[in-house]
Amino acid sequence: MPKNGAPTRTRILDAAEALVIDHGYAATSVDDVIAASASSKGAFFHHFASKQALADALVERYVAADLEMLDSGLAAARAAGPDPAVRAVAFLDHFVGLADGLMGEQSGCLYAAVLTERQLLTSQTSAPIATAIRAWRDGFAALLREALPAGSPIDVDDLADHVFVTFEGAFLLARSTEDPSHLRRQLGVLRALVETALAAGPQEERR
User: Fold this and answer.
1) Burial class (CB in 10 A: 0-12, 13-18, 19+), 145
2) Residue-averaged pLDDT of the chain
3) Contact at 8 Å (CB) between 13 and 49?
4) Alpha-carbon distance 8 to 121, whole Å?
5) Do domains 1-48 and 50-199 have the same CATH topology?
6) Which fold has domain 1-48?
């Protein structure tokens, strides 16, 4: 019996998430999940009708946690004061501060593992991920629209998407180089780029 007393469903999801992130969905079997979670086949199928149902549950849980993280960043931005530029930078500072802890908790991102699996892309499993990506874009874009100087040539949505791109790219860099500091460092680079964009005036018209 597991010593941590976690409910069986949570224990199965925890084990499956780690396996899928490390090895991919196709390479992770139900038997692998059962063994890693110290569970049984009966317990697995009591909670999940199929491996596909497990994937759906994994993504649903991961997206919920991801959106909570987004909300924490938006709360940090609001707490930074009335200056829109300060709020936009505070949003990124929040995640710079969390980066090393996040990298210590997981070796990669479930989104990348799911989005590279053709089987999951052709199902509805990936749809909540698209919803989460849009939420991150919309949340940071709202801060940027208030903060960018009038006449800025920057596409706000494109710049906002760099938060997601930075997280995913940094996980890949960290895995390939075995250096978990990449997330903190790349978020720092993004912070500097955003600060530069916020300080720049409108682009001069070309003659």
Assistant:
1) middle
2) 91
3) no
4) 28
5) no
6) Arc Repressor Mutant, subunit A (1.10.10)
Q: What is the pLDDT of residues 23-53, one digit of tens each?
A: 999 999 999 999 999 999 999 999 999 999 9
Over residues 123-144, the pLDDT tens digits come to 889 999 999 999 999 999 999 9
Token output for 145: 């629209």
Residue 105: CB partners within 8 Å, gap ≥ 6? Answer: none
Angle at CA of residue 189, ends 70 and 158, nearest 5°:
60
Six-digit token pair at 201? 């005036």
Distance CA 41, CA 60 (A): 22
Task: Specify whether the CB–CB gap between 37 and 11 falls below 8 A.
Answer: yes
CATH class of the domain defined by 50-199:
mainly alpha
Q: Please state, in angstroms and rounded to a whole number, the distance separating the CA atoms of residues 139 and 76.
A: 12
Query: Which among 106, 141, 126 is positioned nearest to 52, based on CA atoms?
Result: 126
- Residue 20's nearest CA partner among 129, 130, 132, 111 is 111
Structure tokens at 16: 């499956």
Give CA separation, 52 vs 28, 115, 121, 123, 136, in Å: 12, 14, 12, 9, 26
The position carrying tokens 């680079």 is 189
Task: Look up tokens 């908790």; give the residue.
Answer: 105
Q: What is the pTM of this model?
A: 0.89
Which residue ranges make up each domain of the chain? 1-48, 50-199
Separation in Å, CA 160 to CA 44, 103, 132, 134, 164: 39, 22, 13, 10, 8
